[in-house]
Amino acid sequence: MSQQQGYSPSFKRPAEIMRMRRKRTRSDASVFASPNGPGQSDSPRACVRPFSPGPLFNNQNRPGGGTKRRNPFANIENTFSPKKKFLIYNDDGSAEAADSSSRRSEEEGEEEEDRSAAKERHGGATVAFRDRLAQAELQEHQDINSRKCLTFSEDDSLFEEEEEAADVGSPLLKSPQAIAPASIAPPVCTEYPADWSLKTRLLFTSPLTLSWAEQPKAQEEASGLSRHCRAQFSTLPHSLQDPRSCSELRQAFQQSLVYWQHPSLPWITLFPRINAERSFAGRSAPWAQDRVLQQNLMSEWSVSLSSLYSLLKARLCPYFYLCSYQFTVLFRAAGLGGSSSITASISPTTRGLREAMKAEGIEFSLPLVEERRRSREQQNLTVQQGDEEEQECSELKEGKETQTGDEGENDDEDGSFSWLKEMGVQDKIKKPDSITIQLRKEGQTVALDHKPESMVCVEGPHTFTLINFLINCKSLVAATGSQAGLPPTLLAPRAFRGATMQTLKARSVNVKSQVGSTYQNISSLEITGPILPSSLHNVTTLLRPAQKGNFSAALYTHTPTAVMNTHIIKPQCAGGSVDLSDCGLHPFSIQQLKQPSSLGKTALTHINMSNYSYIWKN
Question: Which of 541, 555, 535 is nearest to 606 (CA)?
Answer without folding.
Answer: 555
